[in-house]
């Protein structure tokens, strides 16, 4: 599904984000930036060692990446030139500012993308796997934050939401 919001094309697709044909894909990382399972593992596997090398360099320079923040590396062997790594919140019954932290992930990632002149970007469904954020609630935060951003900022031409599982895809098609 595809629609136009101001001058930005928003695409909702089901698939594997490592195959996305965009300038930048987003990784649902952890604070160590050193890789893990889920989409993080898939991105590091597909993109190769260069991504991890840059993550290590960033971590050595500035320490762990706090929840809600974002850092950028090369895309290595991926089709995407860049990967932005952001750290989603672990779901804890919603009592730990999870909503704000998840919203920060999307907003900080988009701000960093604009700073780097990135025109197309693909997001996974951050926090909805290992970190246990309820999928419907996470989709609502993701869509709302991205829509608010696009309403104020027209520099990104294309934003994809890449849903790996059917459940997330259906939720996104329903508008979160
Ligand atoms: N393409 C797109 N989405 C994917 C892919 C893929 N190839 N693989 C999984 N997903 P998760 P989190 C979806 O667990 O919940 C890691 O160990 C998946 O179906 O990857 O933010 C990190 O290092 C789900 O909808 O990330 C952290 O420790 C979504 O990606 C921790 O997991 C996010 O699931 C982060 O947990």
From TrEMBL:
CDD domains attached here? Answer: Macro_OAADPr_deacetylase (cd02908)
Matching SMART domains, A to Z? A1pp
What InterPro entries does the record point to? Answer: Macro_dom, Macro_dom-like
Macro domain ranges (all copies): 1-176
Q: What Pfam families does the entry give?
A: Macro
Query: Can you tell which superkingdom this protein's organism belongs to?
Result: Bacteria
Gene3D superfamilies with a match to the protein in the record: Leucine Aminopeptidase, subunit E, domain 1
Q: Which PANTHER family match?
A: GANGLIOSIDE INDUCED DIFFERENTIATION ASSOCIATED PROTEIN 2-RELATED (PTHR11106), MACRO DOMAIN-CONTAINING PROTEIN (PTHR11106:SF27)
This protein's name: O-acetyl-ADP-ribose deacetylase (Regulator of RNase III)
């Amino acid at each position: 599904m595809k629609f136009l919001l101001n001058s930005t094309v928003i695409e909702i697709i089901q698939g594997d984000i490592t195959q996305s044909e965009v300038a930048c894909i987003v990784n649902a990382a952890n604070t160590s930036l050193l890789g893990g399972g889920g989409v993080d593992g898939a991105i590091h596997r597909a993109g190769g060692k260069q991504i991890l090398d840059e993550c290590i360099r960033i971590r050595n320079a500035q320490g762990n990446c706090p929840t809600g923040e974002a850092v950028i590396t090369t895309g290595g062997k991926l089709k995407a030139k860049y990967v932005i790594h952001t750290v989603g919140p672990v779901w804890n019954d919603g009592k730990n500012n999870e909503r704000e932290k998840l919203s920060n992930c999307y907003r900080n990632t988009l701000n960093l993308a604009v700073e780097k002149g990135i025109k197309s970007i693909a997001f996974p469904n951050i926090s909805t796997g290992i970190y246990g954020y309820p999928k419907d609630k996470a989709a609502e935060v993701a869509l709302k934050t991205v829509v608010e951003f696009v309403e104020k900022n027209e520099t990104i031409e294309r934003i994809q939401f890449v849903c790996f599982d059917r459940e997330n895809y259906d939720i996104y098609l329903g508008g979160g």
